[in-house]
Amino acid sequence: MPRPRADPISRRDFVRSAVAIGGVAALSACLGRESPDLATGPDDLSALPDRQHAWNAGLATDEYGNHVAARHQAVVLFDYAGEGTPTEAERDRVETALRSLERAYPRDHEGLLFTVGYSPTYFERFDASLPESVDLPAPEALAPFEDPDFDAADVVVHLASDYGSVVLGAEEALRGEVDSLNGVDVETSVAGVLERVDRRTGFNGDGLPADHQDVQGVPDSEPVDEDAPMYMGFKSNFSKNQATEDAVTIADGPFAGGTTQHVSQLHLNLQQWYEQDDRYHRVATMFCPAHAEEGLVEGAGDNLGETDQIAERGCPAHTERDAREAGVVGHSQKSARARDADGNPLLLRRDFDSADDDRAQLHFVALQEAISDFVETREAMNGTDLDGAVGQRQNNGILQYMQVVRRGNYLVPPRRHRSLPTPSPT
Fold first, then answer.
1. Which one-letter DSSP state was computed for residue 390?
2. Domain map of the chain by residue range?
3. Is 389 in contact with 324 (CB distance < 8 Å)?
4. 3-class state of residue 214 by DSSP
5. DSSP per residue over 81-148, as a string?
């Protein structure tokens, strides 16, 4: 039987639901529950970083120095509403709308962090091509067992804050549904220039998955612990297992200071994960068999500190041996085989869980200098070289517990070119 909830309409449950529903009414209700007392953003925006993706300075950190993801997040997709290519007047309007968000909220986890990215489809409308310094192919299936749909929206906006009302307010301001944010007038919106075509919402943080586990994909026994920041029960934001913001930044060309972004939508199927697999197997398939054998992981894994101990235990080098002898390999163990020449990760992850459509989901948001870096990491994670010793998906990390349903690739320009850029801005 499911355990009873002590507070079936807790504040954080209500706020998550409001963000998922969206709209002005949800924003008003969310503000009534949260009532955030926030400073506004700066009047002079020139001091803000040119890198849109430079969020780390505005994120909280835990006792080990790991950056802690903002608790409420949304990915909002837009299409360009005009014919042909964007005009300078439209660029000015989009930029003014974005600056209104920056003046309304401080650029940190209690205020608002956001990026604006552009798909290959967006750039196809121009005669010129993107420079060679930008690796932005169309999305494709990245494993022999997946058949995802591909996002073709022109623009993606990723919004993040510890306050759901901030995420909602920013989205509604962009769409022209509110006139002020946090006491600051909204000068204009993107309405008429960009049309919203999809929105995906979610959360990341201790207690939030547990509060929202009455969904398809999670057993009725409600097994997700209160200390788990993600549905699968373990943390993933170890600072030593993330690429730095410098490392994922495009170094050359007109988009220097930008990055590329991959956004996947995955459905989670955790019935076997929690109802049949024991703790030993969950640790072995999430981390590495050595972690399970030595009992390295306590709870969600906070005891590991700033690294998941994959490299330190030599797990990547033992992947084939573990597949052959233990009959199981870990997700982190496989992924860690994709590193740069200095042994550093290629991706900076900013993913979050979701209960949209009453289904347990993961929105995997990854930043990297080139989309090929994501592809390389995903190929390592697939473990197709291990087929035979382990299954194509079974006992092959966590592949059997998730299904990729959508993929999209984007260029996140530097802030100076974030508003409807051409392929060769000056």
1. B
2. 12-217+229-237, 271-406
3. yes
4. coil
5. -SSSS--HHHHHHHHHHHHHHHHHS-SSTTS-EEEEEE-HHHHTTSSSPPPTT---PPP---STT---
Which single residue is written with the structure tokens 């590495």? Answer: 288
CB 217 within 8 A of CB 83: no
pTM reported for the whole predicted model: 0.95
374, 105 contact by CB (below 8 A): no
**Hey, what are 285's tokens?**
């398939």
Residue 271 has φ and ψ, to the nearest 5°, of: -60, -55
Pull the structure tokens for residue 407. 């993929």
Taking 3-state DSSP, the helix, strand and coil percentages for the chain, each rounded to the nearest 5, stand at: 30, 20, 50
* Residue entry with tokens 């494993």: 143
Digit-by-digit pLDDT tens for the chain (426 residues) are 233 333 445 666 788 788 888 888 878 887 878 878 899 999 999 999 999 999 999 999 999 999 999 999 999 999 999 999 999 999 999 999 999 999 999 999 999 999 999 999 999 999 999 999 999 999 999 999 999 999 999 999 999 999 999 999 999 999 999 999 999 999 999 999 999 999 999 999 999 999 999 999 999 999 999 999 999 999 998 999 999 999 999 999 999 999 999 999 999 999 999 999 999 999 999 999 999 999 999 999 999 999 999 999 999 999 999 999 999 999 999 999 999 999 999 999 999 999 999 999 999 999 999 999 999 999 999 999 997 899 999 999 999 999 999 999 999 999 999 999 999 998
